[in-house]
Amino acid sequence: MKKSVKQSVIMLTIVMLVAIPFGSPVLAQEYFETAEPEGGEMIYDLCIIRPVGIIATAVGTVAFVLSLPFSALGNNVDSAGQKLVKDPFKYTFQRPLGEF
Predict the structure, then answer these.
(1) Which of 14, 41, 56, 96 is the Cys-Cys partner for 88 at CB 3.0 to 4.6 Å?
(2) % the chain with pLDDT above 90
(3) Predicted confidence (pLDDT) per residue in 24-61, tens digit
(4) Is residue 98 assigned to a domain?
(5) Distance set, CA 52 to CA 12, 56, 74, 100 (Å)
(6) How far apart are CA 45 and CA 33, in angstroms?
(7) Residue 40 lies in a domain
(8) In a domain, 71, yes or no
(9) Residue-level pLDDT at 35
């Protein structure tokens, strides 16, 4: 009984290890079609998401200025500026209206 269970587990493991690489190309070729944003999405973006993005950019800028001495000591001024100022700015001002 133990021998057949052990053989079954070994055979299942071998089959899975052989089958897994064949699934990767299928996932890599998956195609996502992006739909044009609708009017409601654009209004929601303009009235709610963009003002929140402006606030996030301002708060991030203040946090960046306050953390600047510590970032300079840790040699990570660029990454702090990227995460606290540049990313919220790009999300708020440089993406198309209605695309989240």
Answers:
(1) 56
(2) 59
(3) 665 555 566 668 889 999 999 999 999 999 999 999 99
(4) no
(5) 52, 6, 30, 13
(6) 21
(7) yes
(8) yes
(9) 80
Structure tokens at 96: 């198309």
C-alpha distance from residue 69 to each of 21, 59, 94 (Å): 49, 17, 29
| 62 residue type, one letter | V
3-class SS string, 34-69? CCCCCHHHHHHHHHHHHHHHHHHHHHHHHHHHHHHH
Residue with tokens 């089959």: 15
CA distances from 41 to 13, 33, 35, 98 (A): 47, 17, 12, 5
- The pTM for the full model equals 0.63
> Is 83 within a domain?
yes
Range of the domain at 20: 2-93
Q: How many domains does the chain have?
A: 1
Q: How far is CA 69 from the centre of its chain?
A: 29
**Both tokens assigned to 50:** 């963009």
